[in-house]
Amino acid sequence: MSKKIKVVVIGAGHLGRFHARILSQHQAYDLVAVVDPSAPTRLSVAREVETESCESVDDIPEIDSIDAAIIATPTKYHFEISEDLLNRNVHLLVEKPLALNLSQADALVRIADSKNRILQVGHIERFNPALQKVYQQVERPNFMDARRHGGYSFRSTDIGVVLDLMIHDVDIVLSLMKAKPIRIDAVGACVVGPHEDIAVARLVFDGGCVANLSASRVSEQMERRTQIWGPQYFVNVDYMEGLTSFTRPTDAFRGGQIDPNDLCADEKKKAQERFFSDWLRSETFTAESCNALDDELTDFATAINTGQKVRVDGSAGRDAVAVCEQILERMVHHVWDGATRGDHAQQLPHPATIRVPSANDNAGGARRRAG
Q1: Which of 79, 144, 219, 224 is least surrounded by Cβ atoms within 10 Å, i.e. has the fewest?
Q2: Strand order in the sheet with 119-122
Q3: Based on the domain organization, do 81 and 122 belong to the same domain?
Q4: Mean pLDDT confidence for 100-112
Q5: What is the span of the domain harbouring residue 107?
Q6: Do 252 and 298 fall within a single domain?
Q7: Rounded distance, CA 66 to CA 81, Å?
Q8: Is 75 part of any domain?
Q9: What is the total count of domains within the chain?
């Protein structure tokens, strides 16, 4: 058995606590410390999992002996902390999004490659068992529709809904398409602010595939689902219920043995009743119970110990950030009724406005955003 991986958790908030709990019980890891500038927060988590607490990375005991770190801070700190730790030759699992913008994401991928360090990104939906049947059976689809709606959590307020929620579905679409979109359209609006809280995007890929994405963090009704259409199938993934259903035409329908134009009125009535047995057939799979975060951390440990590629590496995280940045740019340039076209800030329906970054924004620290 490989020696235990000495790991630290940077950020003791909502996600950091979950990471710390699992790492403290995981046979592959030795949880050395929990790091957070807030004393009450870090002490609460450290006491629960019986480990050290530190105010900053520099306070970690024997920092040079640390093998790996989990970055679960607010997104605005991802780049600075990750850059520092990669340069210390530490393997990283960075919660999504990898960084605030493409420039930062590219830099982290380059550093990780140059240091030969694992850079994993916490797109945890890739470990959702409801998706595994999709990856096994679905090839390049024709059309996808993803909806990710929920209430306001008062977390991740340093970013908008695109980098907070929609990025999950961006990553899933990119992983299924194995390509980058050639055209993107998007609109968004603020409700709580200062960033966008509602977003709708349309991604078009070479070959004609279209993916519609909708995300909201101000919805009364929770919804997490993806629907996929292909030449001979329809797939519905319900993440909340853990159900994946595949609907395909029957052999008789596909072979042309059933023709709706040949049916009389009585036959059509019977066909309506038996449509989903004689014409289309559905098969539903219930996802196996699992802890996706535990699976993600196990994937990270396996990569560190064996060199095996992680399921979601830095490049995949970088690609998701790149598409999200384009979505935010399209939101900025969308023209509402009564607005003037151009590269100036457009007015969204009250109470929201979209901010266009100025030329003086720091390319390394700023990001194009709505809100």
Answers
A1: 219
A2: 52-54, 29-35, 5-10, 68-71, 91-95, 119-122
A3: yes
A4: 97
A5: 5-126+291-311
A6: no
A7: 14
A8: yes
A9: 2
State whether residue 204 is helix, strand or coil. Answer: strand
**Whether residue 305 sits in one domain with residue 261:** no
Query: Model-level pTM?
Result: 0.87
Coil, strand, or helix at residue 250?
coil
Q: Both tokens of residue 183? A: 């055209």
What is the DSSP pairing of strand 119-122 with strand 243-249? unpaired
Q: What CATH number does residue 60 fall under?
A: 3.40.50.720
Q: What is the pLDDT of residue 46?
A: 97
CA atoms within 13 A on the CB side of 109: 20
How far, in Å, CA of 311 to CA of 309, rounded?
A: 7
Q: Is the peptide bond before 37 cis (omega within 30 degrees of 0)?
A: no
Does one domain contain both 256 and 305?
no
Q: Are residues 106 and 72 in the same domain?
A: yes
**Side chain identity at 284, as an amino acid letter?**
T
Crossing angle between the packed helical segments 314-333 and 167-177, to the nearest 10 degrees? 120
Asked which of 24-38, 115-129, 145-159, 305-319 is least confident by mean pLDDT, the reply is: 145-159
The DSSP code sequence of 51-65 is -EEESSGGGSTTGGG
Would the pLDDT of 209 be above 70? Answer: yes
Contact residues for 211 (Cβ-Cβ < 8 A; gap 6+):
143, 144, 145, 146, 173, 177, 181, 202, 203, 205
- Distance CA(296)–CA(207), nearest Å, equals 33
User: Which residues are CB-contacts of 355 (< 8 A; sequence separation ≥ 6)?
Assistant: 332, 345, 369, 370, 371
Q: Residue 68: inside a domain, yes or no?
A: yes
Tell me the C-alpha distance between 319 and 242, whole Å: 27
